């Protein structure tokens, strides 16, 4: 029996693909960053860094062609290669966008269509165990339904709630669908960890509302009852009681790891009229992650962070060190933390405008640049992994996730693990409602 690597050191290859310009322009980061042409090189770079875990997934808009119609050609090549390399994917199935034929996140058919796609993926790649079915549900709903930036490009509370309930329902149905195929699957939610600071005493009220709203996606996903004010907010903006009860009946927390994403832009200054601006880092990752852990009591993973390499060349390295210090602080506070991620492997394109403008601007955020040359933060991350990999699993509050290596997926002990998970799920879990 091969034990999986202990602490999850990861990176990611971003497959964001929202639409802008009324759905006419697809902001496909895999295309913009050259991954479709350089995917073999990219996987080699992951190995070069000493990384075993990769946040990765096929582009949804290219793979989901219609109801029960899929194009697996790219996924077959890439996931076959990942398996041969014994790299462990954390499969990101929906990252900010849907195929043109679905439209956008206002479409009530999306959750069922996506769940069928997730189950079909799991059936085609049964050796895959780790999933992030829907990435950053809260941010996707905010940017698409409230800020008017992506996809439906609407700007109302009703559009936000509609997008949110469809995104979270899609995530819940997908988890249930994957578990039917892979009963020992584990789900690492990648959700933005936010905080809203009041500029002055008159801004306390709108800041409190924003700080309650930030939890909605995970509250619904984990079946945690929202507070009375948020319940009224959901009901006033289009969620029905039956829809709310669906989320309360589908509690899959015991299959989940809470992934917290943290960037310099995750904290906000709230004005008395409810308007906001970026505040920069005030609390930091450890303080905000403790707030989320206190609410959900789940194992934690730092699933995304980065910073632009600036003119000095060491800005991203200092940010990496700061984030790692925060991970250790979370661990020392007694929170079970299982992993850390620099996101992403290569530089990104047009995130300086949050993918709102198709400018082709390269953002120096990666461990490698777009010519696949390593950046200083890549060198620093490889050293951090080498120095800490063997230390953290010996610490009692750093859990080791029971991950089956791809090369071991067909071994007898791995089959027994899946059979045991299947039996346990059916003996202890209430029947899932998939309405």
UniProtKB/TrEMBL annotation:
SUPFAM superfamilies: (Trans)glycosidases. It comes from the Bacteria. It holds the Pfam family Glyco_hydro_1. InterPro entries: GH, Glyco_hydro_1, Glycosyl_Hydrolase_39. This is Family 1 glycosylhydrolase. It comes from Noviherbaspirillum album.
């Amino acid at each position: 029996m091969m034990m999986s690597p202990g602490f999850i050191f990861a990176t990611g290859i971003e497959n964001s693909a929202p639409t802008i310009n009324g759905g006419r322009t697809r902001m496909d980061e895999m295309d913009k960053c050259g991954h479709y042409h350089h995917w073999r090189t990219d996987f080699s770079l992951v190995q070069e860094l000493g990384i075993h875990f990769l946040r990765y997934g096929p582009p949804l808009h290219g793979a989901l062609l219609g109801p029960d119609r899929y194009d697996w050609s790219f996924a077959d090549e890439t996931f076959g290669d990942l398996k041969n390399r014994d790299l462990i994917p954390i499969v990101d199935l929906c990252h900010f966008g849907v195929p043109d034929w679905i439209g956008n996140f206002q479409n009530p058919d999306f959750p069922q269509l996506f769940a069928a796609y997730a189950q079909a993926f799991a059936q085609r790649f049964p050796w895959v165990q780790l999933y992030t079915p829907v990435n950053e549900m809260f941010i996707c709903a905010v940017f698409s339904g409230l800020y008017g930036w992506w996809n439906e490009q609407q700007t109302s509370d009703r559009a936000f709630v509609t997008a949110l309930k469809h995104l979270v329902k899609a995530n819940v149905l997908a988890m249930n669908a994957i578990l039917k195929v892979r009963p020992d699957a584990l789900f690492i939610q990648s959700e933005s960890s936010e905080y809203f600071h009041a500029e002055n005493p008159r801004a306390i009220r709108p800041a409190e509302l924003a700080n309650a709203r930030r939890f909605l996606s995970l509250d619904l996903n984990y079946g945690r009852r929202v507070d009375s004010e948020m319940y009224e907010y959901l009901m006033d903006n289009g969620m029905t009681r039956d829809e709310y009860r669906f989320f309360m009946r589908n509690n899959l927390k015991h299959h989940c790891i809470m992934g917290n994403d943290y960037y310099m832009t995750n904290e906000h200054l709230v004005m008395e009229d409810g308007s906001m601006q970026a505040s920069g880092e005030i609390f930091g990752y450890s303080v905000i992650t403790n707030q989320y852990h206190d609410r959900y009591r789940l194992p934690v993973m730092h699933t995304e962070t980065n910073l632009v390499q600036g003119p000095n060349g060491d800005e991203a390295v200092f940010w990496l060190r700061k984030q790692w210090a925060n991970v250790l602080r979370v661990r020392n506070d007694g929170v079970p933390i299982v992993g850390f991620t620099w996101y992403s492997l290569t530089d990104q394109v047009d995130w300086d405008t949050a993918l709102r403008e198709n400018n082709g601007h390269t953002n120096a955020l990666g461990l490698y640049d777009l010519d696949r040359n390593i950046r200083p933060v890549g060198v620093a991350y490889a050293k951090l992994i080498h120095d800490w990999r063997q230390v953290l699993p010996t610490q009692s509050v750093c859990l080791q996730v029971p991950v089956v290596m791809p090369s071991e997926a067909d071994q007898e002990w791995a089959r027994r693990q899946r059979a045991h998970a299947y039996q346990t799920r059916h003996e202890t879990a209430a029947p899932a409602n998939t309405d």
